[in-house]
Amino acid sequence: MTTPLRLGIAGLGTVGAEVVRILARSPDMIGARAGRPLQVVAVSARSRDKDRGVDLSPYDWEDDPVALARRTDIDVFVELMGGSDGPAKAATEAALERGAHIVTANKAMLAHHGQALAEAAEAKSAVLRFEAAVAGGIPVVKALTEGLAGNEITRVMGVMNGTCNYILTRMETAGLPYETVFQEANALGYLEADPSLDVGGIDAGHKLSLLASIAFGTRVAFDQMQLEGIERISIEDIRQAADMGYRIKLLGVAQRTADGLEQRMMPCLVPASSPLGQLEGGTNMVVLEGDAVGQIVLRGAGAGAGPTASAVLSDLIDVAREFRLPVFGQAAQTLADAPPSQSATPAPYYLRMSLQDKPGALASVAAALGNAGVSINRMRQYSHDDNAAPVLIVTHACARSDLDAALQALPDTGVVEGDPVALRIEEI
Amino acid sequence: MTTPLRLGIAGLGTVGAEVVRILARSPDMIGARAGRPLQVVAVSARSRDKDRGVDLSPYDWEDDPVALARRTDIDVFVELMGGSDGPAKAATEAALERGAHIVTANKAMLAHHGQALAEAAEAKSAVLRFEAAVAGGIPVVKALTEGLAGNEITRVMGVMNGTCNYILTRMETAGLPYETVFQEANALGYLEADPSLDVGGIDAGHKLSLLASIAFGTRVAFDQMQLEGIERISIEDIRQAADMGYRIKLLGVAQRTADGLEQRMMPCLVPASSPLGQLEGGTNMVVLEGDAVGQIVLRGAGAGAGPTASAVLSDLIDVAREFRLPVFGQAAQTLADAPPSQSATPAPYYLRMSLQDKPGALASVAAALGNAGVSINRMRQYSHDDNAAPVLIVTHACARSDLDAALQALPDTGVVEGDPVALRIEEI
Q1: Which residues in chain B are contacts of A22 at CB distance < 8 A?
Q2: Domain boundary among B83, B116, B133
Q3: Residue A312 counted as domain residue
Q4: Which of A288, A301, B360, B381 is most solvent-facing, going by the fewest CB within 10 Å?
Q5: How far is B294 from chain A, CA to nearest CA, in Å?
Q6: Measuring CA to CA, which residue among A255, A27, A40, A285 is closest to residue A154?
Q7: How far is CA B362 from CA B114, B282, B338, B343, B345, in A?
Q8: At A162, which helix (H) or strand (E)?
Q9: pLDDT in tens, B125-140
Q10: What is d(CA A194, CA B306) in angstroms, rounded to the nearest whole number?
Q11: In B75-161, where does DSSP find H-type helix?
């Protein structure tokens, strides 16, 4: 089969430019693996004049990505613009309308419109692939849809936002407060234009919602995810956690429970000696658990031009090889509606609070927890110079609802200053 | 597409029985993912009467795997018998002769006959898949042939024999000598009938040779691998390595060098804090490095019925989905002959030897190393009660040929007792 696979690439940021560069540099290697040449026909981006360090003269230029998507001389529309709506969605829909294949890195678009886009693609027997949307260069979508396809998946976990992991790692190693490291990361260009996408856990949540859909055969349900960012993590929490043998990670967990689908993306304590605990800087890690395979751990760069381009190329080569797969691993029409689980799987929790220095203060906190059904595993009170004593509690495994009841009862004790910090401990 | 994919399964050990069990238990899940039913038509094994804990009555029985392979009512011949030659090879060839697809877990057969079998399969437009042959449930063949297909692979590393890793881990944690742990492992049934397949590094070497072929587009060249087992590793080496921040692993490394392809499977020291260093027990880990993606680490169970069956099912579902891929990722006819690299990439080495307790002994050893171009980074001499002093040396990075020259010169010093132990240090 030597008919070239003809590509239209929309979006020439670092990733798009890198895809063009690799295709121009290694046509023989990629052609040998794909079984046919991959040929860029036309490209589109906001500015035609910008120097991207790659020669665009061999390719047609389209100012409008929708016009690019509509060109009948391209087989695959490669969407690397980003954004959940706007031009990315309009162009993707236009390409699907005429039955072109889609390769995209756009997690936000798929988290919000994945079901509709998948149905549109499958109605036209087109493929829509998104390896680059989740965990950068780690072939995790492929591992779930194909590599572990013989398994009932029991749990998916992941640290999938490199910026958050960078911030948390840097806070620990440099002993710096959140705000300082956040500013550093911003200055280094690590943060999205809207930083809450990163530090609010939204970007990582988008990714988890896509993996959950594949893993559990359910419709993408990003709006049902429990989402909590890292903005409230203090250097004290990081130190205390380390002192007890834990690290704090923005950890995503998706699993089926008795009453539905649990999806959480929130800061958690994980054992410092575990693979997730040892993950540093911008590296991503995904943990997949299946009934036959047990636990599979995948680790690699979660972002960056090279790793993301690697994932885009993998998808393109699969399209060239005529691999035809439903978008989320099984026909979109057959994906189930999973009701959100009403309660998180029980777990131990880490609590940090300031207690007023009066007799009986600790006892009344312990009583408030006990009354809510939360029992204490470990407790430490630290020496202090002012009127408020830092107190640290690790509970036994308890239901989140019981913990919430306990947290609501704490102000009534009259001995707790401010809002306690409560973080889930994930023993993995 | 609702035409079932019809399977003939040869070999009903723990893996074969588990594949049958999962197909019987989860036909709907697997059918939904594969896009069509997977139907076992006939099976074959040595003994028909053995209780395998799975109901075989729905399937035809064939005493002869070659007869099973020749049945025209099966689309895929699933070879789970093992053995590089004999019935496994005869049956696989018979199936390929009539253009049936092959799914196999047989690393030995592919390490020895992979090129011929791949050419036979591709001549008939049949696929031959072997995910289960390498690193159990870890989808590493898929990661290399597909997930990282856009990369020039620069290096492949792996700990891929769970038994060796179990033995080395257990020696360290229990402080037991090799021979004792070897007997334990044998009693637990962890070892192959011919234990040298495990502890001699052959089984892991088979696996590495397959990954190297995919990674570098070269013909499988198991016979050109530098192979060294763990039989000579002593508890002293493990302790000394730990004392210097290293762990000893049976580590495979494949990489291109200026003059060819380097393939090594041998005990190495790796940093105790690295992902490879932290790998315990029977778990496998594969590290893949590509020019675009950087480093990808995959970790999971390397053996066992469930993980291996998971890999077999992944291959079967891919066949059902009509994924057509050359056996080693590109047409077998295009695979290059890679000359074995004449020299290993330079590395530091760990040396342990016994020195006679005479004046100038250490100096003459240092001189012998220096004369061969091997310079010393760290050296320790331990206190001792008898006439021979244990001495430990860590060299600076040097060529293996220089090290070998130094080792050959050591007896001439007249101060070294017995054979020194030399282990490569892989800084990863």
Answers
A1: 150, 292
A2: B133
A3: no
A4: B360
A5: 7
A6: A255
A7: 50, 40, 42, 28, 28
A8: helix A162-174
A9: 999 999 999 999 999 9
A10: 44
A11: 86-97, 107-123, 140-142
Given B148, B310, B330, which is nearest A292 (Cβ)?
B310
Q: Testing the interface with A: which of B23, B310, B321 to mutate, by most A Cβ within 10 A?
A: B310
* Residues B147, B262 within the same domain: yes
Helix H or strand E encompassing A420: strand A416-425
Q: Which two tokens stand for residue A242?
A: 């380390």
To test the contact with chain A by mutation, choose from B142, B151, B157, B319 the residue with the greatest count of A C-beta atoms within 10 A, namely B151
Q: What ipTM, to 2 d.p.?
A: 0.94
* Chain B residue numbers touching A298 (CB-CB < 8 A): 296-299
Q: Do B146 and A314 touch (CB under 8 A)?
A: yes
Cα A277-A279-A285 angle, rounded to 5 deg: 100
How does pLDDT run across B163-199, given as a tens digit for each residue? 999 999 999 999 999 999 999 999 988 888 899 999 9
Residue given tokens 């994980």 in the structure block? A270
Q: Please say whether the beta carbons of A129 and A315 come within 8 A.
A: yes
pTM: 0.95
For residues B31 and B81, state if they share a domain. yes
Angstrom distances, CA of residue B250 to CA of A259, B198, B200, B237, B423: 45, 10, 10, 13, 11
For chain A, percent of residues with pLDDT exceeding 70: 100
Distances (CA, A) of B148 to A7, A144, A318, B296: 19, 15, 11, 9
- CATH number, domain with residue B354: 3.30.70.260
Minimal Cβ distance to B137: which of A34, A35, A293: A293
Residues B49 and B104 in one domain: yes
B1 confidence band (pLDDT: 50, 70, 90): low
Q: Which residues form the domain of A233?
A: 140-301+330-334
Determine, yes or no, domain membership for A339: no
The reply to whether A353 and A275 lie within a common domain is no
Domain end call among A91, A118, A133 = A133
Measure the CA–CA gap between A77 and A64, rounded to whole angstroms. 13
Whether residues A149 and A91 share a domain: the answer is no
- Overall residue count recorded for chain A in this entry: 428
Q: What pLDDT, on a 0 to 100 scale, did the predictor assign at position B358?
A: 85
Of A381-395, B340-354, B379-393, which has the strongest mean pLDDT?
B340-354
Of A18, A150, A307, the CB nearest to B294: A307
What is the Cα–Cα distance from B241 to B248, expressed in whole angstroms? Answer: 7
Nearest Cα residue in chain A from B38: A150
